[in-house]
Amino acid sequence: MSDSDDDAAFASADEGEINDPSAVGGMATQKIKEKKENVEQMTKQEPQKQASGRNEGKGKNKKKKKGKNGGKETGGKTLTDEKLSAKNLTEEKVVKAEERKTEKPDKIQSETDAQKTQAITKISTLVDDKKSQDNSDKQSDINSDKQSQISLDKQSQDNSDKQKQDNSDKQSQINSDKLSQISSNKQSISQDIHKTVVSEVNSSKTDQEDSVTKIPVKPDNVSNNNIVTESPESVTIPRERDHTPEQEEVLENLTSAAEEQSSGGWGWGWGSSLLKTATSSVSTFTHQVGDGFTTLMDTVETSLGAPPPEEMVKDETISDTEKDEKKETRATNKPESQPKTEAQTKTLDEKTNTQTAEGADRGGWFSNISSLVQNTVSESIGVLETIGTGSLDVMEKIGKKTYSVITEHDPGFRKARQFLGNKGDKQNLSALLRDAKDETDQKIEMEKESEEARKCHFGCLFDDYQGLAHLEALEILSNQSEKRVQTLLHAMSEETISEIKPELLQIKDIFEIDENDDEATEHDFVKLVTDQLTELHLGTTPDKLNKVQEKTRKWLIDFHSESGDDKTTTITRDPKEIHRLAIQSLAELTSKSVEQFHKAGELILLQKDGEKSYLDRSKALAGLTEVLCTEVGILSTKFSHCLNTVGESKELSEVVNPLVTNIYLEATNSSTYIQDAFQLLLPVLQNAVIQNSDVLQ
Amino acid sequence: MSYAYLFKYIIIGDTGVGKSCLLLQFTDKRFQPVHDLTIGVEFGARMITIDGKQIKLQIWDTAGQESFRSITRSYYRGAAGALLVYDITRRDTFNHLTTWLEDARQHSNSNMVIMLIGNKSDLEARREVKKEEGEAFAREHGLIFMETSAKTAANVEEAFINTAKEIYQKIQDGVFDINNEANGIKIGPQHSPANANLTSPGGGGSQGGGCC
Question: What keywords appear on the UniProt entry (chain A) (predicted)?
Fold first, then answer.
């Protein structure tokens, strides 16, 4: 006999014993006694069988389970003795026990058996459908894979911890719901188990069905009825025997799978330990659940199978008042379950003690779970007892309750599932952070580059050297002067205009410089600039311009002398450095040039001495522009030459070429700025000419 | 060195009050006892931070000489802030404030923030203008007032930054139209400014100051 079946039989026998004094028929009493003896014999033998079939620890477990049941028996005895309603319930149980007992000595095969089997199949399909519906509902939320079971177990552990503190009925009811949830989950894992359960339920159903059909005919002959109902049980028993190893197999698979996981890619130390604990607890827990399950199923059998027919019988025989009485007693049945539970937990504690010897680390955990299981089992019994009017209703209620518990009372389950299932997210998060860091690094790098680029950007440097501001100020002057010239010319008579026009046109001609594309030839910059400024006669000194030019030239001379003396020092020069310096020099020179023109413009407007003609000043300014542009050309050529020297020696033409191109481009820009600044002076000079002309006075 | 805003400042006041020294102290954090006469206008720039925003101050340091007045007036236009400086050791520079203020008000936009600065506060012994007088003048004309010393750098930073804060506040209040460059405010380029080509500010004012 298999464990579960054994337990089931035993439990039934217990129940029968409990109800012994209050048994209805004499035959029943007798049979019960016989059965009891039988069962006792069986229980003596079976642990040994188990021990041989499986490991010893498990056998011990089973023994303990029986011991527990025994405790239950004694507890139940005293309690149920006084209760009238218990009769109704236990009658059925007695019937069951008898059935099982009678099965073994003699196999009754009759026509009714065949009929019943048909009925069974019909009902079983019905129940199967119903169950599968329920199950599918449950399963939709209960992830049938191992992880979810582990998390589930973990949760029940949590719950059991909670229960330790507060062992209220409500909570235990939740736990019972959870147990049924777990049971259903278990069903989903092992279809065989499911089948067994269903068949068991079916058998109980058939019992009911049978009694429904037969009891009205022979209401008193319970034992006869029982004998008849043997056959469905005999159907289930071998099945269970067959499937229990399979059940075991499933569990083992589960454990091994979990262990594989734990040994496999689990990144977290605590995670793996948690999983191990979970795994071990799964195996033990499932055993317990298995045991509890059979107990539960028995109770289902007894509570679902028998009472309804009994009630039906009673409905016919017993008056309404008696019914009410029965209800009352049923209500009082509820508190009974609690003393029962106490007895159960007592025995369980014993069991736990031995188990802690096996695995000290999970001892505390285990007792929690065991107590939880016990509580939940007893609670579910209580629940089932109170509910039990129709088996389908019960199943429906269990299903609904389970579903609601999963959805409402078990939010952590989802969390656990996510936690265990989406460990990939962890990696994603770290990857995300790494990406963010890289991005920031890149940004900083880009900022640095842009800062570097700024240092090489002509426009930026031109602004930094205040060339832009001077150009802006010069533009203001130029624009104002132009407007003034227009206003003055409008105000002047034709005669005065014709008088002043030649000078204005001459100045304009001077300002039209031909684009000099000739190769810039070396010149004495300082001398030429100083000469032009002296010619301008504005009191401005070429200090700033000369300083910049001298500085740049000195660098270039140093560079060439270095390259002449020692080629290695030239090689070490960074092309970018040369480029940066070239652009810097050009920008500075251009800025100072624009500043010079700006100052000249201001002073031209202010100085009203007629010492120098505006024509000469214009020529000087034009000359200055030419010198500055030539200088820009020479500098760009020289810097490009430096770059090419470095590029040749370093074979970095790919790096150097764009830099050379850039230098030439910026040199063109520089020349453009200088010439633009010069052109801005035309209105200023014209304005000065008109204002200072004798014609105006 | 990108900035959120660029404010154009002008520094005005009688010659020799220390305008260029104030600028030098602000931009270079140094003091030159003897400074060349400013021709027309000189420039200085510095980055400051207000309310977490980078603001570039483009300062136009005008010549104080009377002869340059006609030219410097044309530079007032398009300034967001003005530092009107007088020398506390020279009463006449204080007396000329009204003329300067009128000039500034006439040739700039009405929203321009003006900071009255009594410079050379380090020369207490030679003080001719009491601080209270400066305060009273500022109060009377709706200016911000501060006594500074370009030599000791006392209040120099504060003078420039407080002016910038006032301008910034006006921007926040919507007084300044930042899109109108004639207000002396430019929105900073997002990055490396494009070729600084001939970007003319709102300098094309039609009614230029009398140039004669």
Answer: Phosphoprotein
